[in-house]
Write a structure and sequence with these properties.
The complex is a heterodimer of chains A (681) and B (375). Chain A is of the alpha+beta class. Chain A is built from 24 helices and 25 strands. Chain B is elongated and about 75 Å long. The chains are: A alpha+beta (681), B mainly alpha (375).
Chain lengths: 681, 375
């Protein structure tokens, strides 16, 4: 039994931001900095962006250490100034009183292997699976059921010399795990980082046995103790220690550091204390069910940043930090070897990751090199896939149904699909006088033609949405709501009730608001993609029938996110992915939360989110989140449209991919289990 | 002054032998036309534009889902007017849960009603659904909408009829050209005339203004406008193209006025007491107009290209916008399957722009004596 590699997986709350980025194949640039709290000063971001592209460099060990020459910040730099002072008790005392309960320390690969063994032999032979056309759910099950199988534990049939060429649609903006903000950076961290916690295909948390020896939680849920392995090293050869974990926490909680995303959740931690090189205890502010997710923050090497960070808290401006950006010291299975802006970055297998003192201590990562190509245009990317220039890409719905059925596609590739818990919706701005009334929002939901959207525009590939949670999730309410269908009579009755009638006889409904007759006219912001525009024009067509004017405005993605963040919109199309815990939706629907762009506010929902966070019993939590789901469905702050599936194209030589509710890579083992077969059949 | 002096070659030889009938000078415009007529391509282009104008003008009667004329609840209406301007459609069809589908709602709401329908029952703004029109199936979606008996030029991914969009798109293409160039011509000719005729500091000021405006890139201005406005209509594009593209016209008009104002007929007019404005717009303008028409026709072609280009890039008028460029845009995404989304609008744009260029070229040669000699 070889242990599997453990990449640091992102399951913090800000994952929501990331998924928004890939919404309906929306614009590739998923700059979500605006989503974050106020830390990211624009100037600092610009500095990060403005860094020149780098010529490909050969193996990067440690960069030559220059004295940082950044200008001194106005305010004296203080590490961890956002942390409340706290004196952690000695370890002996903690061990006495904590009443430690052991938590699982597992290997994602083993979990998946066991799961697959219980399924029995693959449905068809590999040769058959590769010859099949994915034109029906049955064939999809056959292809996925066969090609998803892991490589044997001894690594036979794996081509360890292989290079995998992946596709991403946005550039890698920062290689520093603390500064990440987009999907591409998350993928980069997935390849190069290591961490304490991860989660499996069914979203169950566990500590990775690649980096952790033991993980214990105190009886009162206020402390977690980790003992790290002693054979894990950074790419410069120094060991990864508990002090790195503590230092990383302090950096994240430093005001001067422009953390874009990873501070959310981490700020719920009271203190992180390293008692020796291998033992670290995390103290929580409160006993919350979400603490596990909060502990999942990235780790950076203390010895690399300790001295330089005070002089350049941006971690990106000084010469020293600039060099680190292109030659980062990483702890994961792969290390960065070259990075060309807006073209690609290349990582290569790190020997010091799986070998320690001449002995193999971890599973050897399956690829010699992983090349991630940045191709913004999905049509261009598909051409590259067909030509064999890339090995894998996410397909758009229209590509799946129309452009990947011919011999030109199947010659080199196959494709698979799996359900993903990503929902899409129209957001109504409750601050706008039009959408304050619940009846108006319900009328919008009744007016929309879901059949036309799902069957015609979306080619019948997606499932109708039944609210904010996915029906397969454990926290979806029993007998949950059924999807809306178009009923214009109901919609018109509700509008009449709400006082929106055509009083001046011009055919457009109007209402007196604050002494002024306001016509029912609003602007709907939508993605610039075909699907986004088509869904929006369909709503326009439907509303026109009931005397409402809807102006469709396709908007660039960053602007779309920004106008929702600033609440400067009437209605907007959007999509949310899923986190590992249902509590992570609280920042979408709880009063005053940053990403609650519809400004929805419901006391009961706020109350329930608080309860759910403090409840540890899964059934009781399910009931709480079920109630939230039903209240949201009744209030319709959003008109939910559909759940998007994952569609992926893979080269025929690639194997071992499985889907989770977060797609094929973002869980454990995820990308770790993907390999290229040794001999092409 | 009863006769209008024309710019005639002064050396028209007097007939040596008395002509049997009176030979009248043709006049500048008719002569231009005579020369233009000799150029076959120019005439064909002109005919083509005339046909396009016809199509544009009557688009909702050619393709549409709203009756040209109908009797409903005792009154006669013209619902197709709604395609020109939304508010021209009688509000009676927007209430009482009529819901925009005339083919079924008319009979359902008023069994006595009757209607005369457009030639083709298709809509540029929405997909025609199953059962909407007797004997006509709903439009196919995705890549299945290749040209067929019902959708002559096919449908786009969303199931909108391409013919309907092409026909209604003609309105956009032509109006963008005409409106923007009318704006440009109005500004350009007025300023050019002033600069050329008045001269002095006025000329100096206007010439500098022209230089400044020439530096403003229309495309960037349009992109900025699109980003700012909530609802972008083609009129916004027309206005911007209009107010940025008058410089060429102004320069030409100025040059013509400079040249013409020195001629004898102007002196004659002035001697007879004609005012400045009268000389400028009554005597000079009509003589200067023909050369000025040349940049206008080229400008129309440019404006059409700008509009299609913007729509192609997704920066055009707010959707749904049945422009030729929009069709190209949707074709780009499925270029390997849906050739009809590229071919038809592509050919239409090409031919229209070519036609305007041919007309412009013809005009140029017909009005310029030096070029005229060559033909």
């Amino acid at each position: 039994m070889t242990p599997s590699s453990a990449y640091f997986r992102l399951n913090l709350q800000w994952y929501w931001v990331l998924v928004l980025a890939v919404a309906v194949g929306c614009s590739s640039r998923s700059d979500s900095s605006s989503q974050k709290k106020a830390e990211s000063a624009p100037a600092e971001k610009a500095a990060t962006d403005a860094k020149p592209s780098v010529a490909p460099a050969t193996a990067s060990k440690s960069p030559a250490v220059d004295e940082p020459k950044a200008a001194a910040p106005a305010k004296p730099f203080k590490l961890g100034d956002l942390i409340q002072p706290f004196t952690p008790p000695p370890l002996a005392e903690i061990d006495k009183t904590a009443g430690w309960i052991d938590n699982p320390v597992l290997s994602g690969m083993e979990i998946m292997r066991k799961k697959q063994e219980s399924l029995g032999p693959p449905p068809v032979s590999i040769a058959t699976a590769l010859s099949l056309r994915n034109d029906s759910p049955e064939n999809n099950a056959k292809i996925l059921g066969t090609l998803s199988r892991l490589a044997p534990a001894d690594g036979a049939s794996v081509d360890y010399e292989a290079t995998l060429v992946r596709h991403t649609s946005g550039d890698l903006k920062s290689s520093n795990p603390l500064l990440q903000s987009s999907i591409t950076e998350a993928e980069f961290q997935g390849l190069t980082s290591t961490g304490l916690l991860t989660f499996d295909q069914d979203m169950r948390d566990f500590a990775s046995n690649d980096s952790v020896l033991s993980w214990q939680t105190s009886k009162d849920h206020l402390m977690d103790k980790f003992v790290l392995r002693d054979d894990l090293t950074w790419s410069d050869g120094k060991p990864i220690t508990a002090h790195d974990v503590m230092f990383s926490f302090q950096v994240i909680m430093t005001e001067a550091v422009p953390i874009l995303a990873v501070r959310t959740g981490t700020d719920q931690i009271k203190w992180v204390q390293a008692y020796d090189d291998r033992t670290v205890v995390i103290f929580h502010k409160e006993a919350l069910a979400t603490n596990r997710a909060n502990m999942n923050f990235p780790v950076i090497p203390k010895h690399v940043y300790e001295k330089s960070i005070a002089d350049d808290p941006t971690m990106a401006r000084s010469e020293y930090h600039t060099r680190l950006e292109d030659h980062p010291i990483v702890g994961g299975a792969y290390e960065l070897v070259s990075r060309v802006r807006n073209q690609e970055f290349v990582v290569q297998r790190r020997e010091s990751y799986y070998m320690h003192n001449g002995k193999q201590v971890r599973a050897k990562p399956y690829f010699k090199q992983v090349r991630v190509k940045v191709i913004e245009d999905f049509n261009t990317a598909l051409l590259a896939l067909k030509a064999g220039q890339i090995d894998q890409m996410e397909l758009r719905a229209e590509q799946w149904s129309d452009q990947t059925n011919g011999d030109d596609y199947y010659q080199r590739n196959t494709k698979v699909t799996g359900p993903e818990w990503t929902e899409f919706h129209f957001t109504w701005n409750l601050k706008s006088p039009i959408f304050q009334d619940k009846r108006v929002r319900q009328a919008m939901s009744w007016a929309f033609d879901y059949d036309e959207l799902l069957k015609k525009i979306l080619h019948g590939l997606y499932q109708p949405c039944r609210g904010t949670y996915h029906p397969d999730a454990w926290y979806f309410p029993k007998n949950g709501p059924q999807p809306y269908h178009q009923d214009l009579d109901k919609a018109e009755n509700l509008l009449d009730e709400a006082g929106w009638i055509d009083s001046d006889g011009d055919g457009i409904r109007d209402k007196e608001i604050n002494g002024r007759r306001v016509p029912f006219e609003f602007t709907l912001l939508t993605y610039q993609t075909e699907t986004g525009i088509q869904a929006a024009t369909l709503l326009k067509e439907c509303l026109q029938k009931i005397g409402i004017t809807c102006n469709v405005k396709p908007t660039e993605f960053t602007v779309l996110v920004d106008s929702q963040q600033k609440r400067q919109f009437d209605a907007a199309m959007g999509g949310w992915g899923v986190g590992t815990d249902p509590d992570q939706t609280s920042n979408l629907y709880a009063t005053g939360e940053s990403r609650n762009s519809s400004s929805y506010s419901n006391k009961r929902v706020d109350e329930l989110f608080k309860q759910g966070r403090r409840e540890f019993d899964r059934d009781k939590r399910a009931a709480i989140y079920g109630e939230i789901h039903n209240i949201l469905w009744e209030d319709q702050p959003l008109t939910w449209l559909f759940y998007r599936n994952s569609f992926y194209g893979f080269n025929k030589s690639v194997r071992g991919y499985n889907f989770s509710p977060k797609g094929p890579f973002d869980y454990s083992p995820g990308f770790d289990s993907v390999f290229k077969a040794a001999a092409a059949p | 002054m009863s006769t209008i002096p024309q710019l005639e070659p002064p050396s028209v030889p007097p007939p040596t032998t008395p002509a049997p009938a009176e030979v009248r000078s043709l006049g500048y415009w008719r002569e231009t036309w005579q020369h233009f007529r000799r150029r076959k391509l120019g005439v064909i282009a002109l005919a083509f534009v005339a046909v396009l104008c016809f199509i544009a003008l009557f688009a909702p009667m050619i393709v549409g889902t709203k009756p040209i004329i109908c009797k409903y609840k005792g009154h006669v209406y013209f619902p197709f007017m709604g395609y020109y301007v939304r508010s021209w459609e009688n509000p009676i069809f927007l209430k009482d849960r009529f819901r925009d589908v005339y083919s079924t709602a008319l009979k359902a709401k008023d069994p006595e009603s009757w209607a005369i329908w457009p030639l083709v029952y298709q809509d540029p703004y929405r997909r025609v659904r199953d059962g909407e029109w007797p004997g006509q199936r709903g439009n196919p979606v995705g890549t299945d909408g290749s040209p067929n008996r019902i959708n002559w030029l096919g449908t786009n991914q969303q199931g909108f009829d391409v013919l309907a969009q092409m026909v209604h798109g003609t309105q956009i293409a032509l109006s963008v050209g005409f409106v923007s160039m009318s704006i440009a011509a109005a500004i350009g000719i007025t300023l050019g005339a002033l600069a050329g005729y008045v001269g002095g500091w006025v000329d100096m000021l206007i010439s500098r203004l022209i230089e400044v405006v020439m530096c403003i890139p229309a495309l960037v201005l349009i992109l900025a406008l699109v980003a700012m406005l909530d609802h972008v209509s083609n009129y916004h594009l027309m206005a911007i193209v209009g107010v940025t593209s008058w410089t060429g016209i102004a320069r030409l008009a100025r040059a013509e006025f400079l040249k013409l104002k020195e001629l004898e007929f102007v002196a004659a007019a002035r001697a007879m007491g004609a005012g400045r404005l009268r000389i400028m717009f009554r005597h000079l303008l009509r003589n200067a107009l023909a050369p000025v028409l040349v940049p206008i026709t080229f400008g129309i072609a440019d404006a059409i290209l700008i509009e299609s280009g913007l729509s192609y890039l997704g920066f055009g008028a707010s959707p749904p916008n049945p422009s030729w460029g929009t069709l190209l845009h949707s074709g780009r995404i499925a270029i390997q399957q849906m050739w009809w989304l590229i071919l038809f609008p592509g050919v239409a744009i090409f031919l229209t722009v070519l036609a305007y260029n041919l007309i412009g070229e013809g005009l140029q040669e017909a009005t310029d004596p030096r070029l005229r000699q060559a033909t």
